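Researcher: Please translate sequence to structure tokens.
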Amino acid sequence: MKIHDFRYAYIYALCAFAGFNVAIAPSASADENADSFDEIVVVANRAPEPLSKIGNSVTVLSDVAIRESQATIVSDLLVQAPGVTFARTGGVGQPTSIFIRGAESDQTVVVIDGVQLNDPSTTGGGFNFANLLTGDISRIEILRGAQSTLYGSQAMGGVINIVTGEPVGPLGGGVTAEGGAHDTGYAAANVGGKTQGLLWRLSGNWYGTSGIPGFDARLGGKRADASQIGGGSGQLRYNLTPDLSVDVRGYYTQARTDFAGYDNPPSPFFMFGDGKEYGKTNQALGYAGFTLRSPDRALTNRVAFQYTNTETRNFDPDAPANYGSPSTETFYGIGRNQREEYQGTWELAPHFEAVFGALHERSTIQTDSPAFDYAGPMPLDNYATIDSGYAQLQSEVIAGLTLTTGGRYDRHNVYGGHPTGQVSAAWTFNNSHTILRASFGQGFKTPSLYQLYSNYGNIALQPELANSWDVGVEHHAWDGRLQLSATYFSASSRDLIEFFDCTTTPSPLCVKDPFGYYTNIARASSRGVEFQAGLKAADRLTLSANFTLTDAQDRSAGSATFGNQLPRRPKTAANASASYRWPSRFSAVVSARYAGRSFDDAANQIALGGYVLVDAKISYTLSDRLELYGRVENATDKHYETAYQYGTFGRGGFAGVRATF
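Model: Translation complete:
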């Protein structure tokens, strides 16, 4: 997508500054070069900038790519990008981890329409991608590398910025419905409108499946783990005056999922196998903000309030017999975040811009395992706060060369203060056909509430820290029909928080916590290369591919796992696709995803074999507003694992319809 007209760039800026973090451009066809240097992205600077001025490593999954993929689950989209791999413990709805350049999943910041998502009630405090549907999503921006200067805690590996759709006319909408293998059904709908001073949109989605055995069927798993996921979102923006607008939006997801577990009859004691366990999850977010622009539009101020609430409850109908407790609830976790934020964007001079802001965040945790409380109550109810300030300057110092630098300071109520910084450069030359990029960034992650305050907690914990850098080149040739890029990256992390086992190693703190406690004892590193290529071989044929080599290692000095590959992170990963559109409105896409060998454990004793998955997709446009589509996933019926002994999908067929009005 390109910004061809100042009007669209201006509208884009207003939406982004208001917290929408969206891309608005004239209608673009699938033939248009989606990776143009002129493409506008928000995630790198928290303000709209063309890729030609971005020194960080960014990948954009556009609305065209999302539609062609036919993906219903966001994690299936993300692994199409270089540097991104995933692991899921079973089918759809099961815990899903996303790894960017080898970083832990809870070291990645996830943002939906400007609202940061994470769950303070989990052990690591990260975001679980299990129930995130593509639904109303129109765009995903993936920012790789340590990015805490603008995004604060958790941005050690990168940032995933998810943007939902916006209406383009006074009234319009769309409907998608599909069905297929494993009794799967999926539906999504939206309606909205935009006038001169008002924008509104409502959307909803639902996914249901009878599922697959969470305990791999090849190992004897028989119980299919069913899953139902549903939710909706809404947004409203109104211009109170030409310079002042108000923005309100909300997002809600509810899910119920069966899962395999341990100590479930007829499984032997504490052996993984089939069972009757299930979980329920509710997640809600809210946002309200005001945006005030100066009359000359040089300065934009945004004040916003964000609220997120995630509630997870797990149940085991066999719990009373197994654990001696009358409760079947084996776990509940309620995590909440409240954030008050100010952000300013100021164009100090032509080609010289500042982004600055302040944030107060309060996170709370409530968690317990009622079925195990027969030996005494173990509920956890606590909180932490963090106050932050940041600033970033960007300037095109000479024609084609853009430099960006920034700093941040955070003050946590438990461990105190911590600074971070970053710097990047982007140099476009060769008649704007080539760009060199380089960046250095720092990241940190605050100790989770569970790590601080649980029975194994340690209030002396310090934040996890990371430094990362990358350098790359991107070249466009043949009038933009050929795009090539290569990036080298390196990252090191220290003071990583891990569980110290007192039953094997003595320590003074073991007097207080005889079983163990959390402490800053681990280090890790990752380095590698990312290659991307795109070719418009003919007017109707498009080819694309990417390859990533990631050497992610445990670097904890003195550890028995020193030098080992980090769990569930393959060293090599690749994607390739070929898309062809016939003159008859018929199109087809064949895609393949490769993941190399990895290990399920830190000791590197449990190997997970490499695999290649092939998907075939077709679509037929009946009219400008109606499309039929279908796909075969894992067409070769390849058996594979992303987590040891957990089931994965075999060959499956799906068909659906899309309509707009």
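Researcher: Any highlights?
Model: The domain at 6-660 is CATH 2.40.170.20 (Maltoporin; Chain A).
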